[in-house]
Design a protein that fits this description.
CATH topology: Jelly Rolls
Structural class: mainly beta
Shape: globular
Number of domains: 1
CATH class: Mainly Beta
Distance between the termini: 47 Å
Number of strands: 13
Radius of gyration: 20 Å
């Protein structure tokens, strides 16, 4: 009995270790921004709206969109966790797109937008799945860094602000059945939005963790 008593914890430990081995490689966070340049990113019109300063992407200028165009995932993501450190300034508006694709100008016609806005006149606040499931409450202040996270698994979209879930949305099966309808779950890249010359927003620590289908 005494021998069995000491053996049991060992067997439990071995079982746990085996489960990690059998589970395969654990997905890791991958950086999409080197903190020094816009290498791996592509912008069409109004490229001057984006620049890199002090390890951050500064978004300030006429309407423009900065698309991830790098080698990670061949810039095509389906299921993933995405997060970035964001800081808004008073009266500013921006956004983060996913399942989108590069276009030279205009507002992206493909993919969903996740709102970045704590005090702009647009009532849809930070964390909104723009025009789909909107957030009216303000969870973070201007001039303060916070984490905004997007998780997509199948048709399930979760948006978090500083680890607090603010959107939990499951796309209905009928969405996307109309020809040319771009606001739907598919696959694609990410983009950061420059909204207007009066808006100034900062991004850093932009990371992705691809998830299995």
């Amino acid at each position: 009995m005494k021998k069995s008593y000491y053996l049991s914890p060992l067997l439990m430990l071995l079982t746990v270790c085996m489960s990690f081995v059998q589970g395969g490689k654990k997905e890791k966070w991958i950086s999409l921004f080197d903190g020094k340049s816009l290498d791996g990113w592509k912008v069409g019109e109004n490229a001057s709206s984006f620049k890199v300063e002090n390890g951050t992407i500064v978004v300030n200028g006429d309407r423009a969109h900065l698309f991830y165009d790098g080698k990670v995932g061949e810039h095509n993501f389906k299921n993933f966790e995405f997060k970035a450190q964001v800081m808004t300034t008073p009266g500013s508006n921006s956004g983060m797109y996913f399942h989108t694709k590069y276009q030279e100008g205009g507002w992206p016609s493909k993919g969903y937008e996740v709102q970045v806005n704590n005090s702009h006149t647009d009532w849809r606040r930070t964390g909104s799945l723009y025009g789909i499931q909107d957030v009216k409450d303000v969870f973070v202040e201007d001039n303060v860094w916070y984490t905004e996270q997007i998780i997509v698994q199948g048709k399930h979209i979760t948006i978090k602000i500083n680890d607090k879930t603010v959107v939990d949305y499951i796309e209905p099966d009928e969405v996307g059945n109309k020809p040319g309808e771009g606001r739907k779950i598919s696959s694609g890249t990410f983009a950061l939005q420059g909204h207007d010359p009066k808006s100034k927003v900062f991004y850093k620590d932009i990371m992705v963790k691809p998830l299995a289908d």
